Task: structure prediction
Amino acid sequence: MVRKKHKVRQALPKKEEIDTFFDRKSCEEIPVIKKLVLKPAGYPLRVIGEANPPIIISDNPELFEVYAREQWSGYIVSEGSFLFDQFLYPDFAFQVIKLQVKKNYTTGKISVDTRIVLENRIEPIKLEYPKVYFKDIVGNQEGKDKCRVIMKYLKEPERFAKWVPKNILFYGPPGTGKTMMARALACETEVPILLTKATELIGLHVGDGARRIHQLYSVAKENTPSIIFIDELDAIALDRRFQSIRGDVSEVVSALLSELDGLNSVFGVITICATNAPSLLDPAVRNRFEEEIKFNLPTFEERLQILKHYSEESPIKITADLSQLAKETNDFSGRELKDKLIKGAIHLAILRDKPIIDSDLFKEVLHRIQQDKLKTQKNKIMYG
Result:
């Protein structure tokens, strides 16, 4: 065990705060905590653009309890307090979510007799059975057609094993329906889907990432036929030229390549990966995909269809000229039309107590969205 050389520290409450809270009793009278429940809270700071914070768990509750007592014995805490690790993960924070002390006390002192429990927040990989159909997806006809071919394999794996792609890459701008298409494929075929993001496959220690990849595929193989969907693939599979950006994720990539290659001998498992930047992918990874399906921004007709669909579902009547609105949203994805434009108009109508949403209201919302896009583009130019 590697430990810091400096003295273990704690941001203790000021003496006057303790005195006030305990009705000016001495610190010696602060009750000992019987049981303390902690949850991992992460580091105080992180660099913008970094992957998700590390996930901390304990496989041995008794060992963690000894480890925690050794460094935090004597600390005074209450619900919501933070304790900072000083040994294995310096400055990693754990938050107090529950403590048992004497009646009428909400603060206590950790002792060698305090039971300390770590709330393990890792959830098992879950199989999902979506309720999304191809008819719910506007546009992307090529993607639907390719998915209907894949459906034959999922329904008759042994018969079509040699003739249907098992590793497929979805690529295109954000919000163009890549995840929705994968869900629809699972729904139409009546098979489970395992949804994850590539960033969630990156582990804290050597071996963690590979273990998560193998666990993901193990669950899929136990539930064949099934679909694995990995979003934001570029988070781990960037070209080696961008090593400084992608960090050391070689073990995750190697494990993924191993599983993609191994699917040739496994009937009934499909891997779909999605990315917004296919040109940045490592060629070794991209070459493993037997089929690539491009997702484009919606055409004028598709935008009009999307606007009509969500306008019918709006809780406030929409009287605006949707055809004109479709013309003015040439660079919008389906998600932007729903979440930014229509939802934004509904929110503005609520704030202004408007009984209807007319063209003028949409123009105002559209102007705000376009201004935000310009700011984002300028920031990309200035800061990369």
Remarks:
- The chain has 13 helices and 13 strands.
